[in-house]
Model the fold of this input.
Amino acid sequence: MNKKNKVILLAGMVLAGAGFTSCNKFKDFGNVNQNPGITTSPITSALLTNVESGLGNYTWDAGGITTLSGLYCQYYSETQYTDASCYSRQQPNWDGYYAGRLMDLQTIINYNSDPATAAAAAASGANANQIAIARILKVYIFALLTDSYGDIPYFQALKLDNGIVPFDKQSEIYPDFFKELSEAVNQLDDAGQAMSGDIIYNGDNTMWRKFANSLHAMLALRLSKVDAGQGKSEFNNALNGKDGVFGTGETAQLDYPDGNFPNPVYNYYNVTLRKDYAVSKFFLDGLLSNNDKRADVWASSTVGFPYGLTRDNAIAFSNANPTWARLFQGTATSVNDPFYILTSGEVFLARAEAAQMGWTGENASSLYQSGIQDSWTLNGVYNASDFNAYMALPNISLAGGDEIKKIATQEWITHYPNGRRGWADWRRTGYPALTPAPGATNSYGIPRRMAYGQNTLTLNPDNAAAASAIFTGPDGANSQYARMWWDKN
Done:
């Protein structure tokens, strides 16, 4: 292959999301573009910091895949440009995931695994600890992708080849998630040096194990309708993993230090000065009708914005109701407010659902109460009087029946503002009952997946076309309405 074609191919692979395992491949280009004043070897601690610093945007990011998910599960409403919430075709590209943070994590693994570089990489922590943390975060990010799109490039995605990367079936990806998480938990070495650059747990292996096991349990629950046997087995593997899962008050979270690294919601309303997203009326009214105190911190007012309006109707409502609820406290959100990646409340509720289905011998009612209480506490609104009154409500208490419906609805509430997780659990359980947007551009219902982006359709055409054909729905191949493997509700 000549140099010109190599340059074209490399550019195509970056756009398509294909990665590379080592910078050594770039030696073909000579030293024309090398800066003699900087290191040519990656600093793995810096790579980890870069990856972790962006995880908040996977919980809420204006205009990205996460926000689309939050629109589809009706956490948010669009206030002026309402195409997405009215289900116009959306095809978000995934390039930044593959060529960005996933590649950073793969580089950490490569440099700590290669005997030629492992000793130098160990300056950032024991090789085993670096590899294990990178494996855990790779699963976290890959799970976001497959739960959005379905089949994706996975097993060969982070290797430098000819740029034509095969797609893997979600049914084959999930078992590898469980394997990777279990192996990473056991790989973490308490006798070895903690990894530096870790802004989530500061190299605390016990908390990394808890996070990995908690993630393992949450992913196992995805299998409740498609393969309950494997889901049950993996859920129990997670509970019984070394150090277990999150307990009361334990989280994975990002703490934002200052204006240079602001909370994403603060950044949206105060820095970019946008106001395209509101808390949906459906979500907020549900909280207010039950005197759920989380509404006090999750919305800037009690005026929810009707979901899925046409553009004209949305603008009219906005003009008539200027105090409509912004996310959290809107412009009053603190620059330093943390963003939660995964919380104990979510994990307790997952355990409650698993117990209610008979997957474990745990007490579903006790776990259900612990999950809601932890969420109230984390959000600073817990007091015993209000909480006990809330738990006694007929549509909240498990004593009145409809246990799975109530647990699943609380999972959906507690995931807020994480649209990816809320959308996934709604697709899996069917709860809460969501009504499609009144301004919808078609009658196909609420989207069930993200359509593959145009970049991968163009640059990896054969593989992308084959995957698109699998997801054929009422709007043709690569449908927003086709169901992925675990979506059997």
